């Protein structure tokens, strides 16, 4: 055995892993042998049964022997493309076949020489009667290698073949020392595989496996996937429930004063409308929490425009009246400024002193707000991450409100709460969370839900359009010219890249040609925050007609006059994210229009998925569909690389969630410190590390 490299940590025991490789693996959360053994392959290719190419369905895996005619590779507008023109002899005739690669593959040119016979294994694409393989493997037909090959996620700087070898080596090295963290009785009750056989099935599938078993592995529906998904859910549940116990261990500093009726009348006097029944119900739930001696831990979820700001203001006003302070943290300056603008007249009517703290403020402005928060002169402070800096302190912080909670990690929320002595916590989200998903991702929080929109809101009419992007832009231009509307165009990327999708600069250029008399501006995340804020201010003031943007506008843009949106290549977004984007329009009483464009063909799987948004405006229905199809990572940005995917077990995933919640409660009831579950405790502690990624 080679000497262990101490700088490479535990992975230094594996051949070929030095400090540099170990650092690249660690950047993806792979720091132990067990981490490598638990990496989830991204797919499997079964070469044992070769179906005729002519019969292969679109999207199916195919393995064919072909003769190469021509190979070329080039960069176009910053994008890499390689193409292989070849011919396959099948059934006494020749079939033309194209192979396509959209990112660089080492040694591709050497293996793709004209005249060679090669074995090609890849996903079939059928477009307009033409056959292609997308990102196929190129192998020697005389030495094709194993008949069942395993694909692995991309780890920057570590080749897929190297990662495959390391995962198998880690599993072999662990051998009998691999500890199964699940109690045998729990495993048997739920019908779960033992850990070692599950990992072996994933990394070293038996060549004798049935076609159905390989298909289950490929789809992420195998018993091994089910076992590892349960492990992840159980660890998350244990971490959430332990976090809740810690958060509620101290008595709060501020509780509500008696006088519910007085608070109701004060709220009515401060806002220019009558709250909905859903808002009153949420306010009652929150005020019940704020009256208890233990800190509130509550999530307020509501669809776009359902009135979460009013509910959070009611809670803040109650805490201020009881002698405390409230701090609101928003993920962007745009949203923080918008909150401050909305709250200012309400606070003025209630006699609450409001302050705004953002990173772009001058030094003197910032110093004044910091001093006001520390002295108690500022009773409600709205800010961005600037609230988390060490110099920001509060005299008597009683309530922390975190908006768009999935954009902040647990550590950031804890930093803000640490500025008070066990303050109450209210987190807000406009991404509706299905009940069972809430158990998994924000399981330490109680949940209040707003499903009733304020009266007068008209959701946008949503249309799906497939085909070339030029047609969608022309249709939008006609609409804008005819109705003289103001609105958005959203693109998946800032500049031309690896994805076959539009970018903001190219879109803005074409739209300026189509709408020469309209004022068109571009905003995205790389633009200086001050310039971005200025562009948004001009848009709100009506000085810009069309704002071409990335998802930087997803939250915090409230312009009632904005009445149209074109989302280009919408297939690159999750359904819930599209629903959030669509929520930037239709915020007034006038009609509005959203055009979803997809580059996929009409009737394709991508188009069918997007049709959900044309069929419904209910965010909870959209979220349920997103959960079923793509898993929680699409809703909350959870890091998925190397982890078991939810999508393959979508139907059963919900049942596993609830089983994991019950199991975590059962384990902690008898062993709160997990002293008798050492392996689970280690995984829970690793889960709690900021670099491990957190959901809430």
Automatic annotation (TrEMBL):
GO molecular function: helicase activity
InterPro entries: DEAD/DEAH_box_helicase_dom, Helicase_ATP-bd, Helicase_C-like, NA-bd_OB-fold, P-loop_NTPase, RecG/Mfd, RecG_wedge
Annotated Helicase ATP-binding domain residues: 289-450
Keywords: ATP-binding, DNA damage, DNA repair, DNA-binding, Helicase, Hydrolase, Nucleotide-binding
Pfam families given in the database record: DEAD, Helicase_C, RecG_wedge
Keyword ATP-binding belongs to the record: yes
Keyword set includes DNA repair: yes
Residues covered by the Helicase C-terminal domain: 483-628
Protein name (database record): ATP-dependent DNA helicase RecG
Native source species: Nannocystis bainbridge
Record lineage: Bacteria, Pseudomonadati, Myxococcota, Polyangia, Nannocystales
């Amino acid at each position: 055995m080679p000497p262990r490299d101490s700088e490479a940590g535990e992975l230094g025991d594996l051949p070929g892993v030095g400090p540099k490789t170990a650092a690249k693996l660690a950047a993806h959360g792979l720091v132990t042998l067990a981490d490598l053994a638990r990496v989830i392959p991204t797919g499997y290719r079964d070469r044992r049964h070769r179906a005729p190419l002519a019969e292969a369905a679109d999207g199916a895996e195919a393995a064919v022997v072909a003769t190469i005619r021509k190979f070329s590779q080039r960069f176009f507008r910053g994008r890499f493309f390689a193409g292989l023109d070849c011919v396959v002899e099948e059934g006494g005739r020749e079939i033309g076949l194209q192979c396509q690669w959209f990112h660089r593959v080492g040694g591709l040119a050497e293996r793709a020489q004209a005249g060679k016979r090669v074995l090609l294994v890849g996903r079939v694409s059928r477009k307009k009667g033409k056959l292609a393989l997308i990102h196929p493997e190129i192998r020697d037909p005389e030495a094709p290698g194993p008949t069942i090959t395993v694909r692995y996620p991309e780890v920057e700087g570590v080749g897929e073949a190297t990662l495959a070898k390391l995962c198998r080596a880690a599993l072999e090295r662990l051998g009998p020392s691999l500890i199964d963290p699940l109690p045998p009785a729990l495993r048997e009750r739920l019908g779960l595989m033992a850990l070692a056989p599950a990992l072996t099935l994933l990394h070293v599938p038996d060549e004798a496996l049935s076609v159905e078993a390989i298909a289950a592995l490929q789809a992420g529906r195998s018993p091994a996937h089910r076992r590892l998904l349960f492990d992840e859910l159980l660890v998350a549940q244990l971490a959430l429930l332990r976090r809740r116990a810690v958060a509620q261990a101290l008595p709060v500093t501020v509780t509500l004063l008696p006088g519910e009726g007085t608070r109701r009348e004060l709220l009515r006097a401060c806002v220019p409308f009558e709250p909905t029944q859903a808002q009153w119900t949420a306010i009652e739930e929150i005020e019940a929490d704020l009256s208890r001696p233990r800190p509130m831990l509550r999530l307020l979820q509501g669809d776009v425009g359902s009135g979460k700001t009013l509910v959070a203001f009611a809670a803040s006003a109650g805490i201020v009246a009881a002698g405390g302070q409230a701090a609101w943290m928003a993920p962007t300056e745009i949203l923080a400024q918008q909150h401050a603008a909305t709250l200012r007249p309400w606070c003025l009517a209630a006699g609450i002193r409001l302050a705004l703290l953002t990173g772009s403020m001058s030094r003197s402005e910032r110093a004044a707000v910091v001093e006001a928060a520390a002295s108690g002169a500022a009773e409600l402070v709205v800010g961005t991450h600037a609230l988390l800096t060490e110099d920001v302190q509060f005299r008597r912080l009683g309530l922390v409100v975190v908006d768009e909670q999935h954009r902040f990690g647990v550590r950031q929320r804890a930093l803000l709460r640490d500025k008070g002595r066990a303050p109450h916590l209210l987190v807000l989200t406009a991404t509706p969370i299905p009940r069972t998903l809430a158990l998994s991702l924000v399981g330490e929080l109680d949940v209040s839900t707003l499903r009733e929109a304020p009266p007068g809101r008209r959701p946008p009419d949503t249309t799906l359009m497939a085909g070339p992007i030029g047609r969608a832009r022309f249709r939008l231009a006609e609409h804008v010219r005819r109705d003289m509307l103001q609105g958005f165009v959203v693109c998946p990327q800032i500049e031309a890249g690896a994805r076959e999708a539009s970018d903001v600069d190219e879109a803005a250029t074409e739209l300026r040609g189509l709408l020469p008399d309209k004022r068109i501006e571009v905003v995205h995340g790389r633009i200086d925050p001050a310039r971005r804020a200025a562009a948004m201010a001009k848009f709100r003031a009506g000085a810009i007609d069309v704002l071409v943007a990335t998802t930087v506008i997803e939250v915090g843009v409230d312009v009632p006059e904005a009445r149209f949106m074109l989302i280009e290549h919408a297939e690159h977004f999750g359904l819930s994210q599209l629903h959030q984007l669509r929520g930037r329009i239709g915020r007034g009483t006038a009609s509005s229009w959203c055009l979803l464009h997809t580059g996929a063909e009409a009737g394709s799987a991508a188009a069918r998925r997007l049709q959900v948004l044309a069929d419904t405006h209910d965010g909870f229905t959209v979220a349920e569909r997103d959960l079923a199809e793509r898993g929680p990572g699409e809703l909350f940005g959870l890091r998925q690389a190397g982890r078991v995917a939810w999508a393959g077990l979508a139907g059963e995933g919900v049942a596993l969630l609830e089983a994991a919640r019950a199991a975590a409660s059962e384990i902690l009831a008898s062993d709160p410190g997990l002293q008798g579950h050492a392996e689970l405790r280690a995984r829970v502690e690793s889960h709690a590390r900021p670099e491990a990624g957190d959901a809430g």
